[in-house]
Amino acid sequence: MLLHGFAAPIDELDAAVECISAAARFRQLKTPSGRPMSAFMTSCGACGWYSDARGYRYELADPLTGEPWPDIPPAFAALARAAATTAGFDPFDPDTCLINRYSPTAQMGAHRDADERDFSQPIVSVTLGAAATFLWYGLERRGSPLRIRLFPGDVLVWGGAARKGYHAVQKPEGGTRYNLTFRKAL
Ligand code: MD3
Ligand code: FE
User: Fold this and answer.
1) Which atom number of ligand 1 is nearest to the Cα of residue 150?
2) Maximum Cα–Cα distance across the chain
3) Which of 6, 42, 73, 165 could form a disulfide with 16 if both were Cys (CB 3.0 to 4.6 A apart)?
4) Is the bond preceding 122 in cis, omega lying within 30 degrees of 0?
């Protein structure tokens, strides 16, 4: 479900991203095969998504510092819960929020989110900063995807059968894009 403008006003969310990234820096992760991902990432919550030669996984502490990830800010948690409720997924208690930062040349190839334990839990994603086109393939990674332009303040909720769908993100349109991805991973 696309909730256009659901996250507005977004100044408080932008400020929270700054605050989190001061404690847990944005970093360029490598895929298990050693390729650097073009988006820079950080996390907050009880765990954080991570990738390196050892594989894709959730880490309970930031491997850069050994410190726990910053807490999920109250404004983030409230937004994620409200969006999930609006889409019919109640209760939603995410234990992690991955923050992706896309420079004007960064993108994300087609993949599905499969590192979480319980696929009956939805995923909530929030666009901040620049707009970008999101590509939705569905349950198989072939054919021509549905193209959805996402603007700052747009929120997407993915649950049920869509939870296992393939998706990708194109380069942002003239600026830096941030995306918050709320998940219940553990
Ligand atoms: C559809 N991020 O971090 S969010 C990711 O814009 C990721 O940063 C993108 O895909 C971004 O894994 C897209 C939208 C999204 C997130 C999770 C999904 C779409 C999804 C899980 C299942 C289906
Ligand atoms: Fe994804």
Assistant:
1) 6
2) 43
3) 73
4) no
Distance of CA 61 from the midpoint of ligand 1 (Å):
22
Could you identify the atom of ligand 1 that is nearest to the CA of residue 162?
A: 23
List all residues 6 or more positions away from 113 whose beta carbon is below 8 Å from its beta carbon: 123, 163, 181, 183
Give me the CATH code for the 2-183 domain, please: 2.60.120.590
Map out the domains of the chain as residue ranges. 2-183
Residues with CB under 6 A from ligand 1: 98, 100, 108, 113, 123, 125, 156, 158, 162-163, 165, 167, 169, 179, 181
Q: How far apart are CA 130 and CA 177, in angstroms?
A: 5
* Residue-by-residue pLDDT tens, the chain, 186 positions: 999 999 988 999 999 999 999 999 999 999 999 999 999 999 999 999 999 999 999 999 999 999 999 999 999 999 999 999 999 999 999 999 999 999 999 999 999 999 999 999 999 999 999 999 999 999 999 999 999 999 999 999 999 999 999 999 999 999 999 999 999 999
For ligand 2, the distance from its centroid to the CA atom of residue 137, given in whole angstroms, is 12
